[in-house]
Amino acid sequence: IKPGESLTIDVTTNWLFPFILILLVVAIVAFVRKYTSTSLVLRKRISFVRAKGGEFALKVSLAAHAKKHVERVNVVDKLPLMVKLHESFGGEKPTRIDEKNRRIEWNFDKMEAGEVRLVSYIIYSKIGVEGKFALPTATAIFERDEEVKEVESNRAFFVAEQRKVE
Questions:
Q1: pLDDT at 128
Q2: What is the C-alpha to C-alpha distance for residues 71 and 23, in angstroms, rounded to an integer?
Q3: What are the CA-CA distances from residue 82 to residues 122, 130, 162 (Å)?
């Protein structure tokens, strides 16, 4: 710049990146608050079981983990339409099996903080499954500080590989 000349600079700010960063921080804080505020965590897992008659069979395991003291816990799981329930159960036996509505229920009087209850059952079907097999989420209804609350489990998936036909 020479004497007597002036230079003007226009500065513009791209607000997109700070806005995305703020939204990401808010989402992380909301997720952490939601996760730490839950009194009961319900996790669902499935694994393949070898059946004698060549049937398609899966072992479904539910883990109820109490983070805080909870009372009157009712764990409900629904069965898909094309499967049948095997008579053997791992862990605690179900309180009620509703064949008509295809529901299995377990009741626990109370669970202390840190306590984990594992329940499992086996489902089977004459019809084989190819591709992805998804089970519905399980639900737990419980009382905490005389307030009824409800949590859902994760969705459990099983991926069946194609067999070679010889």
A1: 66
A2: 36
A3: 14, 14, 19
* Tokens encoding 52: 């004698």
Residue-wise pLDDT for 18-40, tens only, equals 999 999 999 999 988 877 778 88
Report strand pairing: 70-78 vs 139-144.
antiparallel
Rounded distance between C-alpha atoms, residue 63 and residue 73, angstroms:
13
The DSSP output letter for 35 is H
Q: Which two tokens stand for residue 124?
A: 């089977």
What is the average pLDDT value for the chain, to the nearest integer?
A: 85
Distance CA 45, CA 161 (A): 18
Predicted TM-score of the model (pTM):
0.71
Q: What is the dihedral sign for C-alpha 151, 154, 155, 158?
A: negative
Rounded to whole angstroms, how far apart are CA atoms 42 and 62? 7
Amino acid letter for position 82: M
Strands (E), 51-130: 56-66, 70-78, 84-91, 96-98, 103-111, 116-125
